[in-house]
Amino acid sequence: MTNKSDIEIARNANKKNILDIAKKLNISGNEIIPYGYDKAKLSPNFLEKSKDNRLGKLILVTAINPTPAGEGKTTTTVGLGDGLNKIGKKATICIREASLGPCFGMKGGAAGGGYSQVIPMEDMNLHFTGDFHAITSAHNLLSAMIDNHIYWGNKENLDPRRITWRRVMDMNDRSLRKIVTALGGVPNGYPRETSFDIVAASEVMAILCLSKNLEDLKFRLGNIIIGYRYDKSPVFSRDIKANEAMAVLLKEAILPNLVQTLENNPVFVHGGPFANIAHGCNSVSATMVALQNSDYVVTEAGFGADLGAEKFLNIKCRLTGLRPDCIVIVATVRALKMNGGVKKDNLTKEDLISVKKGCDNLQRHIENIQSFGVTPIVAINHFEADTEAEISEIINFTKKLGIEGILCKHWSNGSDGASELANKVVEISEKSHSPFKFLYEDNQPLIEKINLIAKKIYRADGISVDERILDQLSNWENSGFGSLPICMAKTQYSFSSNPKLLGAPKEFQIPIKEVRLHSGAGFIVVICGEIMTMPGLPKKPAAEEILINQNGKVEGLF
Prior knowledge:
3 domains, four-stranded mixed beta sheet, 19% strand
């Protein structure tokens, strides 16, 4: 075990030059764009050169529903990637970029932890290579052009009451959820009500993560619906000539970022949509180039499997043709206890009854993954207070379901602590698989797709939805958008829409509050319950503890 903080471990790492990391993937020095000596972007030439390579095995890491106790999904993703390299496999890790909002709010960093981290840790969690800023600028450029278009005559006859495009910023600020713009008279335009979302919820973020290349990016940006005319016909960003300029701002951001683990293995960190309000997966371009240049690619999907994994399988796999060869579900004794009813302050006490009760949550996730035709493994991420009896309870529980449960100590032991998991992942990945199957088909009605997710994944009795939303879905179907997949925006803490209903709740409905058409990204967002697309800061935000010390080093960033 270690008493060092994550940031202390990261600073003491034996970091290699990014050119040496690139060589592990046969990337030459002129095929990367360095950002200093420890991070780089891939060049368009390398992406083009790799496109016809044979694809490696794809491993998805997901988790049970998260709790304040922590599950360590990213830590396990990094540990497994290091573990695969340790046992002699050529493996690459793909994860998402961190948002400033959670870093200064309550979640903390997004680069793993202990001895299973991605470095440079401080850069990863702060401005990194500027991708988030580019997405913010491109999104808000379109916002500015919309109001400017109306100010200078409104050639497209856009109804200001029916503008659907919002603004974004990469910070938790609840005061911006509902605002009025253009106050102050004629020179400032036409006043109207609008909103801010966090950048992770931006359709531009989703578009960047789902675009195959620059041409695809421009096409998708042009397909963004910004609002509706007085005759209720849609107006697209291309109609006001915004998409090309937006693409200019994103021409570097679309290129995957290359960094390294503490054990100097390659990692692509690219894109950062949240899974509770967006589709929760890293970029298609990073995943593809990793698969084209590795034997194994370990990636993750945000939050629990009811959100991130469902969207990975129903959205990302649907749009790319990718299929995971194995799925790892991360669970901890601590989180299972909380799902079994234990308060956070009592987690260090052995409690086999609560562990067993909490395993009901794990079982649902296992069954959900199996329903897609993919074999899961349970990775039990070890914490110091875990007892042998509690760990045995989980392993025996998974064994009864015909699933491997493997204790992992990568947080404290790095790749050595994940070698058993790595060997089992290889074993499962090399086997023949059942046919992969989506939860729903493209041609099913939109409301039926929503209902299927609620009933089959969340185990709800059904959904509650008013006529206004039903009419909106019907209008989209009549306009040719009925084949789009569904992106549910829901609390990450529960299968239900109530974050307090932990474990495996029954006899509940999912209330549908709003639907949004992301025609450029290619999915429909369904907002459930009280979930917010612009988070707020907690009573005591992490920002209060983040500072620069006398030596010029950042403190408080985990």
